[in-house]
Amino acid sequence: MDTPLREPTFLILTALAGEPLHGYAIIGEVTTLSQGRLSLRPGTLYGALDRLVDAGMVEVHRVEVVDGRLRRYYRLSPAGDTTLSEETDRLRRNVEAATARLRDRSRSPRAVPRTVGGVA
């Protein structure tokens, strides 16, 4: 799987880092983790889960029958754990670099823009 991860993929892997979850629980976790900014539709989620399973990052943990319907629980695979850890480290380094730049900028006097032309 390519890195950097898209935000929905990152949040799906993050949701599964805690414990195995079924699809609608993953949707709820992603909404919570994104503080409501991202709300996955079932078709989008299951397409992403299929790709993550194919990539070896997510595994089917178990299958239950609930109200006559199959409910699959997914978990993070060792490869998914590694990818999520690496992506988390990459994002952390980016945040640290941006934070340092913003902190340095706020400490130094701002350059005054030069006017074009002469003074009247």
Automatic annotation (TrEMBL):
InterPro entries attached to this UniProt entry: Metal_resp_DNA-bind_regulator, Tscrpt_reg_PadR_N, WH-like_DNA-bd_sf, WH_DNA-bd_sf
Domain Transcription regulator PadR N-terminal: 12-85
UniProt-recorded name of the protein: PadR family transcriptional regulator
Bias type Basic and acidic residues, positions: 97-107
Region (Disordered): 97-120
A Pfam family reported for this protein in Swiss-Prot or TrEMBL: PadR
PANTHER family hit by this protein: PADR-FAMILY TRANSCRIPTIONAL REGULATOR
